[in-house]
Amino acid sequence: MSLAPGTSVRVKADWPELRGRCHIRTPHYVRGETGTILRHLGDFPNPEDLAFARPAAATPLYHVRFDQPSLWGEGAPGDDIVIELFAHWLEPL
């Protein structure tokens, strides 16, 4: 999946840590939230697999912008937070 800058995405509302041992780089506070792709950072081995010495396919990594007041209920309009997220956590809207 390739996502262009400006694409609206939703972070999957998934909780793999409830199903057993795992390694997750996706913050809980953005799961299920909507953001905007800023840029593609490159393709990298999936750290969720690398943590358990499993084969790790190269996966696109993106900078995704979120509206801070929507996430945390504080901040001024225009305040943003940018998070690095792998493509398998993102659903285009």
UniProtKB/TrEMBL annotation:
Signal peptide positions (record): none
Coiled coil stretches, renumbered: none
Domain Nitrile hydratase beta subunit stretches: 4-92
SUPFAM superfamilies: Electron transport accessory proteins
Name of the protein in its database record: Nitrile hydratase
Gene3D superfamilies recorded: 2.30.30.50
